[in-house]
Amino acid sequence: MKLEFWGAAQEVTGACFLLRANGRRVLVDCGLIQGERSDEARNAEPFPFEPERIDAVLLTHAHLDHSGRLPLLIRSGFKGTIYTHSATCELCEILLEDAGYINEREAEWENRKRERKGLKLLEPLYTRTDARQVKSHFKPLKFNEMTDILPGIRVRLQDAGHILGSAIVEVWLNQGEQHCKLVFSGDLGHRGAPILCDPVAVAEADLVVLESTYGDRLHRAWEATWEEVKQVLQVSQHGGGNILIPAFSVGRAQELLYVFARNYEPWGLRQWHIFLDSPLAIKATGIYQRHQELYDAEARQIGRRQGGLLQLPNLSFTASTEESMALNRICSGAIIIAGSGMCTGGRIKHHLKHNAWRADCHIMIAGFQAHGTLGRQLVDGAHYIRLWGETIRVKAKVHTIGGLSAHADQAGLVDWYGHFRERPKVALVHGEPQAMDSLAKRLTNDFGAEVIIPERGQVSRLAGLR
Prior knowledge:
alpha/beta; Metallo-beta-lactamase, Chain A; Rossmann fold; 2 domains; seven-stranded mixed beta sheet; 14 helices; globular
């Protein structure tokens, strides 16, 4: 029995872990590598294992850095079952097809230039047709239910509280007289976050594969975070201009709408016109509305009282391209929520082109920005950005609302690990080196935990752990 680390090893994205037991192969997540162009080019490389010999996939949640290479896995020969929460199945359908569409458009745009130069044309990473093939492989599961997926391999999903349907994955391996339990944290949610429940505590494991995205920092208290958002709204209202909010279409967009609805009067939101400018986020919002059984107690109560959770009288869904383009003619009074969350693509780039050079514009960064992304450049105070070959001066005010993160901070990660009895071994993934090192020191100092920070391709032998 062994575990191989093929993604999110000393980097934040590209989750991919291979379990071998009882002659079977189980992949945990199969995510896209995101960041700089050189990083994303690695997505087109062949898998470091034989996809046709993978028996099953355990998918923690729908975000593309965990699910985004599933179409490639299937196109490369995978014929097995993908086990995940039912809400994740629904979200993946829209996320993967959207990714396929973006791939097609980017390849088409690049090939126009290459054709004029007489260069070889490029194929998209995968297409919408490839993405649609994933649906037939899904096997939906519920939280807190034991499922035997293969001989000697049993799994259970627990609520990770990160996005709708996000799961902590418990895996029991039995091979002859050898027994081992692994726990994959997936992405753990930020305790007290809007809409969803807090991450479920797990008590037993032999090895914990733990994310470390915010392993070196603490989020602001929720009360301070809400006050900061309120102040951005007030300052923007007095100075005119628009507010741009780059937001992940799944999770962050819905949280923002919920928080705006909950604070509609005290935050003076009546004075604004709010636009959800993302076809993907609009579809995801519908899925969130259908899964109210996954809400926390407060959100369920508000949803029952209002007849729906994400209700705002001045909210418009701008699904079409024409509707989105019309927003660029608005000079003041608009709050535009658009993808992508790290400003690497999508409609937010167009809005930045039309607003970032304006001193009365405000850009509210409400999520993690990976190294090498346009969003990270804005957070780091870039005075100029490049969009479609054009240099644009950044005169807009950039506000980083760190407390809105959907990831647990260092305290949350340490607290979650602290519920394990007998202090199991920990493998840190999904983090930049500084974050991993800082979290490793905390876990070692506080609990005496044995912590490893695996490299890509590293193999951990599991036999004899217990």
